[in-house]
Amino acid sequence: MKLLVIEDEISLRQSIVDYFTQSGFLCEQAGTFQEGVQKADDFQYDCIILDINLPGGNGLQLLDHLRKDKKTDGVIIISARDAVEDRIAGLDLGADDYLTKPFHLSELNARVKALIRRKYGSGSSVLEAGSLKLDLAAKTVLVQDSLVSFTKNEFELLLFLITNQNRVVSRQAIAEHLYGEQTDNLASFDFVYSHIKNLKKKLKEKGCGDMLQAVYGLGYKLVV
């Protein structure tokens, strides 16, 4: 799961990043309006935690930019402003949730998880694709009702493929999903092939290796 925290208060931003990193999220951060726009434009996130008051701009303007650009990243607004008008404006612009400062990180965590369940699992923490069942909460995978052990990256890759089932995803898109902005520093995407190979081997051992297919010159897709 990829998370972008756009917050100008350094201590709060770092606390959020540290908390979610320990929970297994891939976290990136931005401290200004322009930095937030650039990262949101360049990468896709499962959830963006967005402050309203930002140096160089306004979080609501950033949200409006995302939605006009047809970006579907989940957005939770965090703000010290508790005015009803701000809540309504944020939700009208396409925010998924609104949390007033100060808040407990455990509550923010619960809201992020609820957003992800709504986004990917129709309210359930279990995603299904054919004979695959992926539990977001337990971080487990059942293949034909048999528990299969996956590494963290394999789990995240399988989740990415399930949420894009029957669609081709490129090696670059996979790399960005697994490593975020660090992808720019990678010499090649050869590791993607290794992850795909391991994932397909484990699926094949359970009798469904044909679900994961390579599309020559384009990438990979999970066929259901």
From TrEMBL:
<keyword id="KW-0805">Transcription regulation</keyword>
<keyword id="KW-0902">Two-component regulatory system</keyword>
<dbReference type="InterPro" id="IPR036388">
    <property type="entry name" value="WH-like_DNA-bd_sf"/>
</dbReference>
<dbReference type="InterPro" id="IPR001867">
    <property type="entry name" value="OmpR/PhoB-type_DNA-bd"/>
</dbReference>
<keyword id="KW-0597">Phosphoprotein</keyword>
<dbReference type="Pfam" id="PF00486">
    <property type="entry name" value="Trans_reg_C"/>
</dbReference>
<feature type="modified residue" description="4-aspartylphosphate">
    <location>
        <position position="51"/>
    </location>
</feature>
<keyword id="KW-0804">Transcription</keyword>
<feature type="DNA-binding region" description="OmpR/PhoB-type">
    <location>
        <begin position="124"/>
        <end position="224"/>
    </location>
</feature>
<protein>
    <submittedName>
        <fullName>Response regulator transcription factor</fullName>
    </submittedName>
</protein>
<keyword id="KW-0238">DNA-binding</keyword>
<dbReference type="Pfam" id="PF00072">
    <property type="entry name" value="Response_reg"/>
</dbReference>
<feature type="domain" description="OmpR/PhoB-type">
    <location>
        <begin position="124"/>
        <end position="224"/>
    </location>
</feature>
<dbReference type="InterPro" id="IPR001789">
    <property type="entry name" value="Sig_transdc_resp-reg_receiver"/>
</dbReference>
<feature type="domain" description="Response regulatory">
    <location>
        <begin position="2"/>
        <end position="116"/>
    </location>
</feature>
<dbReference type="InterPro" id="IPR039420">
    <property type="entry name" value="WalR-like"/>
</dbReference>
<dbReference type="InterPro" id="IPR011006">
    <property type="entry name" value="CheY-like_superfamily"/>
</dbReference>
